[in-house]
Amino acid sequence: MNSSLELGKIMGIPVRLHWTLLLVILYVAWAFASFSQTVYGNTYGFGDIEPAQMRWLYSLLFAVVLFACVALHELGHSYVAHKNGIGIKSITLYFFGGVASMEEIPRNPRMELQMAFAGPAVSGVLGFISVYLAGPAAAYGGASSALAIMLWTLGIMNLILMAFNLLPAFPMDGGRLLRAWFATQMPYIKATRRAADIGKIFATLMFLLGLSSLNFMLLFVAFFVYVGASEEEKATEISVSLEGISVRNIMSAPVRSIALDMTLDELKELMFREKHRGYPVMDGDTLTGIITLTDLQKVAEAQRAVTRVDQVMTRKLYLIGPEEEASTAMKMMNDMQIRRLPVIAEGRLVGIVSREDLVRAIELCREREH
Ligand SMILES: [Zn+2]
């Protein structure tokens, strides 16, 4: 489903807008058109601008520019990644901010430090420039002039964006900075665990603070940070464990395959005997499908004696080569929601790799680490 709109390309990277962001731009415009506050002589919020239509217009302009600043934050990360030779597929602006979709980042703490820092640095610079320019704008047109309010509000929001992203918790940039810094002193996986633990403590404190003040926004962010920390930890553990392991190292071979004309009753017996939940199906020497316990269970008991394997097998196959990385197999299984991949070399079936094989490999590697 195409739920995002391509705005254009910057540095060759397509920048997309997710439709949810349109709602948020309207919400932000409404929020900033509805209030006005003056702190130490500086006004933010467009609520006092007259006539009322102008309030909306300025506020809408503000919201659009604010999200352009979010895009620049993302481009900051992408620029450093690009300079280090990492391919960036796209940048999508969601309601919560931006997400740059890039190739897997090599585990190089120095580079990660630079990359994670680039985004908040861009927000910080934009924030300071904007706040700085608000001074002359106020001197020229008055503190309650639209331009002064615009610059001041943009400046403050960019500084908040910087501060929020520097929170030392995944998935915020601060969490990555923390991990990269730990990783200069200890193995990557340990650094990730430590950074994730700090993120979780942080999330717990935010949660308690949110509960005691009944601040739902804070509760939401706490939840987001907690989940982010756990996911980063899991993903890193898996990719570190599988590093340098190819499909050939973990696949099951030789493969037990079955013929097309086997009946489901025979198949069931074979599954029980060999304790396999799936088999490749061969037509002579050619792989034509895969049959699994799930396929078998779709057929009523009474029909199984007269139903052949090729009547119910899955014919759409995703294949992988033996020299591919195990983490690629993992990614394919996750993306396609499947449990096993036939391994093909020079057109011939040489093995099969399943989720169980991957899980076993991850566990064994974890054992080796301790
Ligand atoms: Zn960022």
Report the order of strands and helices.
EEHEEHEEHHHHHHEHEEHHHEEH
Q: What is the molecular shape?
A: elongated
The rounded Rg comes to: 27 Å
- Biggest sheet: strands, sense, closure? 4 strands, mixed
Report helical residue fraction. 55-70%
Poorly predicted sequence stretches spanning 5 or more consecutive residues: none
Number of helices: 13
Bound molecules: zinc ion
Mean pLDDT score: 84
Oligomeric description of these chains: single chain
- Total of domains: 3
Strand segment count: 11
Strand content: 15-25%
Structural class, by secondary structure, is alpha+beta
Name the strands of the widest sheet in spatial order.
1-2-5-6
N-to-C terminal Cα separation, in Å?
44 Å
Q: What report would you give on this structure?
A:
The chain has 13 helices and 11 strands. By secondary structure, it is α+β, with helices and mostly antiparallel strands. The protein has 3 domains: 1-166, no CATH class; 169-241; 247-369, CBS-domain (Roll), CATH 3.10.580. The radius of gyration is 27 Å and the shape is elongated. The protein binds zinc ion. Zinc ion binds next to helix 2.
Core attributes:
binds zinc ion; alpha+beta; CBS-domain; elongated; three-stranded mixed sheet; 13 helices; 370 residues
Q: How is this structure best summarized?
A:
With 370 residues, this protein is an alpha+beta fold. The chain contains 13 helices and eleven strands. A four-stranded mixed β-sheet has the order 1-2-5-6. A three-stranded mixed β-sheet has the order 7-8-9.
